[in-house]
Design brief:
Helix content: over 70%
Radius of gyration: 21 Å
Number of helices: 11
Strand content: under 5%
Distance between the termini: 82 Å
Order of helices and strands: HHHHHHHHHHH
Largest sheet: none
Number of strands: 0
């Protein structure tokens, strides 16, 4: 019972992150599943089965609010599904001893990416206006789908920044299109795992609880994105992923680091993590206080302006001419 409650909290936390950043549901939830001892292939399969429900609900919500570019969904989602199916079959054929470190390396890389990107840059719009080439979407989908299945996550961290940088799609439609196309990726990855490992290795109670936690968190995430800057949240989550997967690698047979060495590495990572979050907080406050464009809000461009922002000014009052004057 306690493990099911923990899994529900995992799903809730992962959806809070994903709903606020437009990415990292799979990375966060798979990392936490591995931390509580789940088999790598089973962990990724569990996450993707739960994502069938969460991405369907998320995609429907984005479609209702006009946040979906269906051409992009098809052009990136179909190659993404192909890549996800291939990644799932590859991961299913690896032994647990090999799969755990491989998955941790992928997750660690994605965690470093999140930590560095959000700490240094946040979510920016400086590349808006650049053309989006059709031949860019298919390879992006293949790579993102493959990493998503083999690493238990990666569709959002790969696809969202790439489409934001492309410049042709406004940020709200980037997040909506990536979240909607992820339904195809989750569906294909789940099929790949069912072919590769069958249903015997999957605990469907875990899937249900993980899904329930995600559905509960979805409206909370919509509130959270208005109160916690994505830049700060991205730095915080990136640090959790880096620290957790570093621990897995150091304890694996590939490294088997002595206890003292491992503790020293954990301390260095923790200090760097604290510094990164503090830097993100300072940058967000500085951008808000000077009244410039709050780049961290790119994931919610339609939201209200920050307090003290000079971006929106009231129009000057025009006096009516006095009666009888020309």
């Amino acid at each position: 019972m306690r493990s099911l409650v923990l899994l529900g909290l995992v799903g809730l936390a992962a959806q809070l992150v994903d709903g606020s950043l437009g990415m990292a549901y799979g990375v966060t939830s798979t990392t936490l599943l591995l931390a509580i001892g789940a088999n790598p292939a089973a962990a990724s399969a569990t996450v993707h089965l739960a994502e069938i429900g969460t991405t369907l609900a998320s995609g429907a919500s984005h479609w209702r609010f006009g946040n979906v570019d269906w051409k992009v969904v098809l052009k990136i989602g179909i190659p993404g599904a192909v890549g996800a199916f291939a990644g799932a079959t590859v991961l299913s054929r690896l032994s647990t001893e090999v799969a755990a470190p491989v998955m941790s390396i992928i997750l660690l890389s994605l965690g470093l990416y999140l930590l560095i990107r959000f700490t240094v840059r946040g979510l920016d719009r400086k590349n808006l206006g650049k053309p989006l080439r059709k031949r860019f979407l298919a390879p992006l989908g293949l790579v993102g789908g493959f990493l998503d299945a083999t690493g238990g996550g990666g569709w959002g961290p790969v696809g969202t920044p790439a489409l934001l940088a492309s410049g042709r799609i406004e940020p709200r439609k980037v997040i909506g299109s990536i979240d909607t196309s992820e339904f195809l990726v989750a569906l294909a990855a789940s099929a790949g795992f069912l072919v590769g490992i069958g249903s015997a290795g999957i605990d469907f109670a875990w899937v249900g609880v993980l899904l329930l936690g995600g559905l509960i968190a979805a409206p909370i995430a919509a509130w959270l994105v208005r109160h916690i800057p994505p830049r700060v949240l991205g730095s915080a989550v990136g640090g959790v992923i880096v620290l957790t997967n570093t621990r897995t690698l150091l304890r694996s047979d590939w490294i088997a680091a002595p206890g003292g060495v491992a503790i020293a590495i954990y301390i260095v990572i923790a200090l760097a993590w604290i510094a990164a979050v503090a830097h993100s907080v300072r940058r967000h406050l500085a951008e808000r206080d000077v009244g410039g464009p709050v780049l961290d809000k790119a994931s919610n461009p339609a939201g209200p302006p920050e307090t003290g922002s000079a971006a929106v000014e009231a129009p000057a009052r025009v006096e009516e001419p006095a009666a009888g004057t020309a």
